[in-house]
Amino acid sequence: MSIRKKIGFAWGYSFIAFFLLGYYYISPNWTFFVFIYAYGLIPILDEIVSRDSQNASTEEYEKLLNDRYFDVLVYSHVYIQYFMLLWGCYVLTHDSLTWYQIFGLMLSQGVYASTIINVAHELGHRKSAIAQFHARAALISVCYMHFFVEHNRGHHTHVATPLDPATARKNQTVFAFWGQSIIGGFRSAWNIEKKLLQKENKPIWGINNEMIWAVILPILLCYVLTVSFSDSMKETAWIVPSFFAVQSMIAILSLECVNYIEHYGILRKQLENGRYEKVNPLHSWNANHFYSNLLLFHLQRHSDHHAYAARPYQVLRHFDESPQLPFGYTMMILMSLVPPIWFRVMNKRLEEWQKNSVDTEHIMKVVKQFA
Questions:
Q1: Biggest alpha carbon–alpha carbon distance for the chain
Q2: Pairwise CA distance, residues 314 & 61, whole Å
């Protein structure tokens, strides 16, 4: 890995740098900039900066796995997210902001919070108790703790099949998909947890049910924040739960847009025994845009992630044979919000993938190459 790329993964801190330095050294109107940066500048930078097809060599693979620098980056964002929640609550209850500055602050915090779900996604796939603790903590801060249950044990099992609520169907709009994935994901997570508890002979309605905590802990966090900042105002700080809810909603809808993009229309073949073919790197959309991949910890190398879920972000690979997105995620999110444009661009690519997926010999050749 080049030193440019290694250092580049720290560019995820740019969201916070632009947020805080802009607010204090330029103007409170700067609260909008993180949103503008994410959905205005990053798509442009993606096209200006070179694409990235560089993969870790066999010789440097172990070295990259054991380099704690990459761990510090993802763990630190969990603590920064909580700092930003506290900072946002403080500013909203102590500074005299206009309504549009408040809206900008909530919008930009929501953009950063959406990257926190990606951090939780990375840490949630690790086996260590510390990593999983931080993954849960990150998800509590955006009211999406059930993602920890559903993503690992549901989505990765059923991806690219009709059984997966997080796999969008061809010609399904992102707006219809939001309901399918959010409601279906929660229902799936509850059923997964219920079956696990029944298998272990533990009560469903008890402290061992992670789904109960997934509901209680975000509410408790919001309550603590509200009470804490209400004390300083000598009245109920209703702006605090509003801030918490809005940043969570933006983060959740952003995540679901990403789910929509990553698996749009791709389905695995159903075998004669009723099961589906094994997941391989041809079953997720990929993007090799250098700049946004640094900001998102290689999330856009999604094909390799689904084929090898335990592989840490720094060693995820790009393969030309995987179905490729025309733009990075932020631009694709904007496109998804305009269904006619989305269908016009993506249906052609999906049909090309469907045509190639019929070629069994080609698929087996590619799968062996990825192994």
A1: 71
A2: 9
